[in-house]
């Protein structure tokens, strides 16, 4: 006869949890308030944290006080602080307070929205909040959204749907014996498109890189020529990927012209707006997104510029049944009486397990509102323009790409220094700045030359933070030059 589970064999007692939860909440609030005082990058080498951790797990449980102390003393000093107002690498973002609260509650509920019955709230809130974002960014009615972890997964799923639409035999028989398929993306498109080609069996050569113009945008004429050439060689064109906000420069592909080519050729059009998509809520930036409503699929990442904690990527489908056809597979143990009535989110991707990501996004939208999001993005664009003006006004520094959103790409060209030596000096100055802990910037290469990138996307970033970063970067440059 079974009885109550002894506390020693159950979970943490509620009162103990309550005490530690309050301690954690206080720590989080203090961290968010004071993160700007920490070094952005930890001054450590690989292996620092692991060398300080026990090599084996404890045989008996540690007190939570000890675990929290180790978190503060070991984990935090080994952390790169993405929530820092001077984090400007990659695409700067913010895990906002409302989003963090939503993440905490999602962890407590611990639901898995694989089929409707397994999480009615998780399923329906995801559909609803995806539609809220659709409305906010101006995509037309009819686009159906699902939440994935990152844009890499969303783009993979979009291209899987393209393969299903144009090579339907691959679902049953694989690609053996099928004609070679090809996806087209600009030379500035994200590497995840090539990874998708590898994963889908097309290979890296199954993604053809298309030339760009002097503003780093895909050239529709080059796209059309590449498709004609491939058809003549017996290769089956499948899809085109247009990017709104490329990673290196945030260039904006001419989606309307690209859509004309895709439609004329009968190809799937996927739009990667992972970074810039949230900026469509700002009326004066909406022109950058002209034509994306013609896409078959669109990806927008709330965890980049919609102040939502990692990870949260929205994939929109103009014809969601195409996406579902690529992935739907229901074993008997997952069949329910709601089949065909309630949505089963597992049908729109590979993952069966699906976290309740919608909750944190819902909290973010509830707290900020669309207008609040727009005002903050507008300020980030203004701040990036201020930084670009400082670069342009400084001798030997120059902005090397358009900055339609809030990322500035620039380069230092010291007088009397060869381009190769300037590459080295740019890399050394950037490394010196990053190691100082004052700020964190990333780099890229354009036309074969090293460039620096500064992205503004954190809710706490002010003009004072940018000035401190700019002063520290110039000092680092003087130091590596020896002046």
Structure characterization notes:
The protein is of the alpha/beta class and 483 residues long. It has 2 domains: 12-41 and 80-95 and 368-483, Alpha-Beta Complex (Aspartate Aminotransferase, domain 1), CATH 3.90.1150.170; 112-355, Aspartate Aminotransferase, domain 2. 42% of the residues lie in helices and 12% in strands. The chain contains 14 helices and 11 strands. The chain has helices spanning 14-34, 64-75, 97-109, 120-137, 151-166, 170-173, 192-199, 220-232, 255-265, 302-305, 320-327, 357-393, 419-436, 463-481, and strands at residues 144-148, 181-186, 207-210, 236-243, 268-272, 297-300, 313-317, 397-399, 407-412, 442-446, 449-455. The strands form 2 sheets. The chain has a 7-stranded mixed beta sheet with strand order 1-7-6-5-4-2-3, sandwiched between helices. It has a 4-stranded antiparallel beta sheet with strand order 8-9-11-10. The longest helix is centred in the C-terminal third of the chain and has 37 residues, at 357-393. The radius of gyration is 24 Å and the shape is globular. The N and C termini lie far apart (82 Å). The model has no long low-confidence stretch (mean pLDDT 94).
Which secondary structure elements does this structure contain, and how are they paired or packed?
Blueprint lengths: L13 H21 L29 H12 L21 H13 L10 H18 L6 E5 L2 H16 L3 H4 L7 E6 L5 H8 L7 E4 L9 H13 L3 E8 L11 H11 L2 E5 L24 E4 L1 H4 L7 E5 L2 H8 L29 H37 L3 E3 L7 E6 L6 H18 L5 E5 L2 E7 L7 H19 L2
Parallel strand pairs: 2-3, 2-4, 4-5, 5-6
Antiparallel strand pairs: 1-7, 6-7, 8-9, 9-11, 10-11
Helix pairs in contact: 3-12, 4-12, 5-7, 5-11, 8-9, 12-14, 13-14
